[in-house]
Amino acid sequence: MTGLRIDSARLQGRLETLGGIGRDATGRLARLAATDADRAGRDQVASWMREAGLEVLVDRVGNLFGLWRTGDAGAPPLMLGSHIDTVIDAGIYDGCLGVLAGIEVVHTLREANVRPARPIAVGAFTNEEGVRFAPDMMGSLVYAGGLGVAEVLATKGTDGATLGAELARIGYAGPHEPGFLRPFAYLELHIEQGPILEREGFAIGAVENLQGISWQRVTIAGVANHAGTTPMALRHDAGLAAARVVAFVRDRALCPDFRTVATVGCMEFRPNAINVIPSRAVFTVDLRSPDETVLRAEEEALARYLGELAEVEGVAISTERLARTEPVTFDPALVAAIEAVAGKLGLGSRRVTSGAGQDAQMLARICPAAMIFVPSVGGISHNPREFTRPADLAAGANVLLGVVRALV
Amino acid sequence: MTGLRIDSARLQGRLETLGGIGRDATGRLARLAATDADRAGRDQVASWMREAGLEVLVDRVGNLFGLWRTGDAGAPPLMLGSHIDTVIDAGIYDGCLGVLAGIEVVHTLREANVRPARPIAVGAFTNEEGVRFAPDMMGSLVYAGGLGVAEVLATKGTDGATLGAELARIGYAGPHEPGFLRPFAYLELHIEQGPILEREGFAIGAVENLQGISWQRVTIAGVANHAGTTPMALRHDAGLAAARVVAFVRDRALCPDFRTVATVGCMEFRPNAINVIPSRAVFTVDLRSPDETVLRAEEEALARYLGELAEVEGVAISTERLARTEPVTFDPALVAAIEAVAGKLGLGSRRVTSGAGQDAQMLARICPAAMIFVPSVGGISHNPREFTRPADLAAGANVLLGVVRALV
Questions:
Q1: Which of A42, A164, A184, A229 has its CA 20 to 30 A from that of B9?
Q2: DSSP letter string over B167-193?
Q3: pLDDT in tens, B230-254
Q4: A196 interfacial to chain B (CB closer than 8 Å)
Q5: Residues of B numbered 199-218 whose beta carbons fall under 8 angstroms of chain A's beta carbons: which are they?
C-alpha cells in the first residue's frame, strides 16, 4: 500500500457544492429524478468528470458515466458509483458520496500518474430514490437488465410527467443502451444511514449482504358508524384493525430470532372524522431481512394474521404488493479486499448488512459487487441533519482508492 | 288518550322535500350552518311554520322558532325542536325529524281545533352538527346561556367565514336575545343513530340520559429514521405508539364494567412515507359514558397510559382537549310520560341512553327536557343510507303528540 491519498478537501467541497444545487427558497434540498434540479446536479457532476479526465457518456435511461479509457481499452471497466438524485428535504451525502468519491479516486490516480491496467468508469444511476418515479433503484435495475427500457421511459411520475419526456427535456436521454459498459466489478461507497458503525466505533463497514425488502399496501374496509351510538361489540372499526397490524408487525420484529425489521410508515383513515368509526384504513408494511427464508416466513405470518383479524373484527382486508427484492450477498473476495485495505490504513472495520436498497444490489446481478459504508452520525438519513464527519468521508474514499488499486 | 293522530304522509313528504334542499350535482346532501343551502332549508321550514299557524321568530344566533301564542299567552311555552343543519353527505332524518314533527304536532292540534292551555314553540337550533363552525350544538348551547352571543357570532368557520356575517348574509341574524322564550319544558324527537331499538324490536326509545363526551387530540413526537437501517430496539416510532393507544382505548372500552365507548376516528402520520419511521402521529380520542365518574376515570387511565408509553417508546406525547360535556340525566317525569304514551298507543318502548350529543342536553340546563328516539335501520347515521321506516317516524311523532297533549 503506497501512501497515495484522495484530496479530502476537494471531495468535501464538491459534496457541499452539489448539496447546494436543488434547494428551494426555504433552503430545503430536493433533486428528484429528471427535474430541473437534477439537470443542474448532473451538469455539475459531468463537469467534474471531465475535469478528472473522464469521457462523459449517457445511456437511454439517463444513467450518467465518466469513463477513463486506460490500460487494456477492450477490457471490462471497474465501475464505481451510486446516485445523485435525492429524497425531498434531503441531506447532502446519500448517493452523492459514492459518485463524487469515484471521481475523486480517478482524479487522484491521474494526478499521481498511475496508469491502471483496465478502464475505470464512474456511474451516477438515474432515480435511485424512487420519489418521483417508481420503482426506486430504477436506473441500476434497468442497467442490470431487470426492467425494459421502453417500459421505464413510459413511467408516469407522481406529477403526471413521463420519465422519457423529462429525460429528453433536461438533455439526459442518451444514446447508449443500458448495460453498454459491462463491469469487471462494481464498488459503491455510501453512508451507512444507520447507527451501528457510530455506536460501535468503527470507521468502515464492509457490506457483506443486503436485506431483502417486501413492501405491501394493506387496505382494511370496515363500516363507518357513529362513535357515540354504536356499541363496542357491534363495531367493524377499520382503524382499530389497522392498529392491531401495526402492533403485530412490531412485536414480531422485536423478537430477536427473526432478524427482520418491520415498519408501518404510511397510514390513512377514512372518513377521518373525530366522531365517526373509521370505514377504511390504508397503510403500508415494510418488511426487511437478510435471509430470504425468514422474509418469506414473515410475509406468510402477516398474511395469516390478516386473515384471522378480518374474521375477528368483521372487516375485509386486501393487500397489494408494491415492491419485493430478495436479499443480496455481495462478492466475498471484494468484501475481504475492503477489510484488508481498511486494516492496512489503520481503520477499524466490521462486516455489516445494508438495511437500505442500493444500486449495488442491482449491479450484483451482472458482476461481482460490494459496498463500503462510513458512519452516519446518529444514524440519521433522508433528513437535512444527515451528517458524516469529513475524516470518515476521507477514510471511506481512501479505502475505495485502495481497493481500486488492488483490482486494476 | 283520544284517537288524534299526526298526518304521516305530510310529515314524510316534508322530510323528503327538506332532504332535497342542499344537494350538489352528484346528489350529495350537505346543509352546513349559515350556508346558502341552510338558508333555503330555513326558508322552507319557516314557510311550513306559517302554514301551521306559527309566528316565525329568529334570535341573534339564528335559532329559528315558530310560536303558537295560545292559552295563557304569558305562560312559558312548551318547546319542541331539534336542528336542520346536516353533516356532509348526510341522510334526511337527523335533526330534521324533530323540527318537522314539532310543526306537524302543532298543525294536527290546530286542524283538530284543540286549544292548549299554554303556548307551544317549535325550534330549529343553529349549527348542531358543528361541521362548519365549532363547537357543535352551538345554537342550543348559546340559547341555554352556556356561551356568549358575541363570542359565537365572531366564530370563524373552516372556510374562514364568520358566523355573524354569514347569518346576516342569509337573512337569519334575528333581533331576539337567545333564551327569549324560556321553555316550560323541552321535547325532542330524534332518530336513534344507533342499532339498539331495531335489534331489540322496540318502536320507541324513552331517552333517560345522555353520555358525557370527552374529545382529545393526541400528538406523539418520535424520531423519523430509515425503515431499513434502524434496528427495532433503537426506534422512537410515533406511529407504533399511536397504534398502541388505539388498541388500549378499544380494549378498555370492550370491558363490560366500564359502560364507555371509545373511538379513534382521525389519524395522521408524518412524514407518511413507506420507508420512513413516523416522526409524528396525530389522532383523536372520543370517549363517552353516561356516568361522569366513569368518564373521568377513563380520561385518567388514558393519561396514565400515555405517560407510561412515552417512557417505554422514548416519544413525547401531548394532548389537547377539544370538547368535554358531562353526562345529562333527562327529566324523570317526562321520560315516564313518554313511556306511558307509547304504552297507550300499543308501541313497545325501552329506556335508552343517547350516545350522541343533542340540542336537548343544552335545553336540559334551563328546563325539564327529554327525548324520544325512533329506530335507525342498521344503526346507520351521518350517511346517505340513514333510514327510519315511515311507520316508525309516524309512531314517534304520535308519541310526541301524546306527550304534548298530556303537558298542555
A1: A229
A2: HHHTT---SBPTT-S--SEEEEEEE--
A3: 889 989 999 999 999 999 999 999 8
A4: yes
A5: 211, 213, 215
